[in-house]
Write a structure and sequence with these properties.
Blueprint: H1 2-30, H2 39-67, H3 73-96, H4 108-125, H5 130-142, H6 150-174, H7 181-231, H8 241-258, E1 262-269, H9 272-279, H10 281-298, E2 304-307, E3 312-318, H11 322-338, E4 340-343, E5 348-351, E6 354-360, H12 367-383, E7 389-392
Helix pairs in contact: 2-3, 3-4, 4-5, 4-6, 5-7, 6-7, 9-10, 10-11
Length: about 400
């Protein structure tokens, strides 16, 4: 029984290891240094690599300190190990997406605090060059302009001052011969003034960046709205004539190039002038709005419609021959005929109908000719009694 239990445990462990190996192999296949499908995460990693570049420069300074006798070889090695460990952990967190669970996914404050610990370690061993290394704290703090506000700047400044204060205390306890306490305290106070000043300046810079980013988003949103307004008819929401003709030309070019078919449907509301004259232009606008809703409900996602004139609409039915176009046109005609447009001002109902002309585009035919044929078919529908569909063969 014991052997059987051990066998089951081994099999279970083996299955788990196999699954882990499979997951790792899949991860290795899809792995890339920077994420390809998450721009925000890619930006956070790019900033991480900027900080890594700054670390590299500081390692060069540490090596120079070693060559000039300000730092021992063991201290240099441990400084390098601490930097590698911290940054490896940070990269794993970023690349695995664990940072997304944090309140600040960029981990700016965390990165600043870790960097200040690295400097704290170096300051403890560089003897008389401690004052020079204090300037590195300012460089670290400036990294916060990517993300931090003034309050967050002050918090990390306090952490930096705490690390330097710990250095002073440890030196006073273990190597009192290496420091002049009142000078160290004065340097700490100077660093405090500088860091607080940098915090307020950096906070304002960060706020300006945030305001600029917000303004940019608003500008982009406004540009999208302006573009939409520039290509759409205000009343019906369909494309205006200028943009409609651009789309028709594009469809025509595609048809000539690939041989794809499409059909144009010219729609015109019957006796629309009478609606305006009898019920007023506001009622006429309501008719056009309701008519556009009817068309929208029948259109497929691949089709598009534009307001060609006052009460004329041009529909482009992509990948559609005349036979299928007739089905579409009859559906539109029937919907309009059955719908009663109510004039709210007079409490009277007035029926509105539509005449439709269809023309299937012929390959290499000039698009204006196709539109003209659809228009002629529409007038033929009006001539033959309105509220009907006619086809240009």
């Amino acid at each position: 029984m014991t052997h059987k239990s051990i066998s089951w445990n081994i099999n279970g462990i083996t299955r788990k290891l196999s699954k882990l190996a499979f997951n790792l192999s899949m991860l290795a296949q899809d792995f890339s240094i920077m994420p390809k499908n998450d721009p925000k995460q890619a930006l956070r990693l790019s900033r991480f690599f900027i900080s890594l570049g700054i670390y590299t420069l500081n390692v060069s300074l540490s090596y120079l300190a070693y060559k000039t006798g300000l730092m021992g070889l063991t201290v240099l090695y441990w400084n390098l190990i601490i930097i590698l460990v911290f940054n490896t952990i940070l990269y794993i967190i970023f690349r695995s997406g664990l940072n997304l669970r944090l309140k600040d996914p960029s981990m700016t404050s965390i990165q600043i605090c870790l960097a200040s610990i690295v400097v704290m370690y170096a300051i403890f061993f560089v003897h008389e060059a401690r004052g020079i290394l204090c300037s590195v704290y300012i460089l670290i703090l400036l990294f916060g302009t990517f993300r931090l506000d003034t309050r967050q700047f002050l918090k990390v400044s306090c952490f930096i001052l705490m690390t330097y204060g710990i250095d002073i205390y440890l030196l006073y306890v273990f190597r009192p011969q290496d420091i002049v306490l009142h000078i160290e305290i004065f340097q700490w106070l100077v660093l405090a003034v500088v860091l607080i000043s940098v915090s307020f300046i950096g906070g304002n810079i960060s706020a300006l960046r945030h305001d600029l980013a917000t303004s940019r988003k608003k500008l982009q949103s406004s540009l999208v709205k302006i573009k939409e307004m520039a290509i759409h008819d205000d009343l019906t929401g369909f494309y205006n004539r200028r943009h409609l003709m651009e789309l028709v030309t594009t469809e025509n070019n595609r048809s000539n190039r690939t041989g794809s078919i499409f059909t144009l449907a010219m729609l015109d509301l019957d006796k629309f002038k009478n609606v305006n004259d009898t019920f007023g232009h506001q009622a006429g606008d309501e008719v056009l709005i309701t008519f556009s809703h009817i068309i929208s409900n029948v259109l497929r996602k691949t089709d598009f419609c534009g307001r060609y004139g006052g009460e004329e609409f041009l529909v482009v039915l992509t990948q559609t021959d005349l036979q299928d176009a007739k089905v579409f046109a009859e559906r539109i005609r029937a919907c309009v005929e059955e719908f009663l447009f109510l004039d709210l001002g007079r409490g009277r109902k007035s029926g509105v109908t539509v005449s439709i002309g269809l023309a299937e585009h012929k390959r290499n035919e000039d698009i204006d000719k196709t539109i003209s044929r659809a228009d002629e078919a529409m007038y033929k529908a009006k001539k033959n009694g309105r509220n009907r569909v006619e086809v240009s063969e």
